[in-house]
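job 3f2a | input accepted
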Amino acid sequence: MKKVSLNRLSGIVVPLIFMSGIFAVMMPIVSEAKPTTVLRFASYFPTAAPQSKLLEKFCSDMSKASNGKIKIEFFGGGSLLKATKVADGVLQGIADIGFSHVEYTRGRFPITEMLDLPLGFPSAWVGTHVANNFYKKFKPKEWNKFHILWFNTCPPNVIILAKKPVYKMSDLKSLTIRGPGRVGDVLERLGATPKPVPMNEIYEAMARGVVDGSMTPIETLRSFRLAEVSKYVTKSWQIGNIYTFYVVMNKKVWNKLSPSEKEVFNRVSKEYEEKSAQIWNKVDLGGLKFGEKHGVKFIDLSSNEVSRWKKAVEPVKGAYLKELMAKGYSKGSLSEMLRYVKKQIKYWTKKQAEAGIKSVTGPKEIRIK
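job 3f2a | predicted structure (369 res):
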């Protein structure tokens, strides 16, 4: 074996070490920058609806507020998850964020469903603020598996009629009105016959006389074009319930976000509480104008009739509270929640009047002329 002298070896190694030092200096330093967080947002609402446009705007605002560090892909129209599957889909990770309402999974969010009782919400603006404060006040355990971004409500349900006007409760006795679930319970107490027709089938059902009307918000005159098959609307907001919508995130996904990302989500979501209140109020105004354009007559209940209708639907509230007590909820805590909601309705109605925000329904101080 041929020997290599130390002098010759050092003559080889030293230049190599020198050259490797040069390459090390010349090589760029690679940073450990956090990659973009990409999330999926599922909604069942039609993509052309103003409510969907608002949710898409939320996604783009999140990207701007995070300087592009958060990207949210929006899947509207039920393309990723149908309305009844949103809650489970978010838990399972099919979507990271989801939008739906509590009545699509009746019994799953029992405390929050109390908001959907006939409590006399005057507008979507009021309902949205009450719903968010209700959650922050009581933090129902039913939401523990989710991270809440915000809640909103639709405008109060009213009675939309194809041919026959309703001025008093007795006018409902011979009528079949579209009203699933809790809405059906309300209609039944008023003397009508409820029929659970899917929203996308109401137009045809009214046109063919399958039902005489629908108990839905005034905004459906435009969004579902019910003004084309309706002649009358009885603005029974005093007993008309609302639907409580939620925007929730998978909790594991939330927990993996950085503190700065969480701060952006909290800040932008807070802004969208108000934006949601405004857009859901605005769509009702659009429904009113569309109805007026098609010659729909809008009827207000007399004060005597309001008293009769309120008394008639009171058992709906009582029956639901009994259901909750049978499941182990205390009467005292439930009563406290209802008192809180009633106080909040008064508080936010006053705030709406002070802000000069007008609605189609509600007392005269917030009602559009």
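job 3f2a | The chain has two domains: 37-102+124-153+243-283, 158-241+293-355.
job 3f2a | closed
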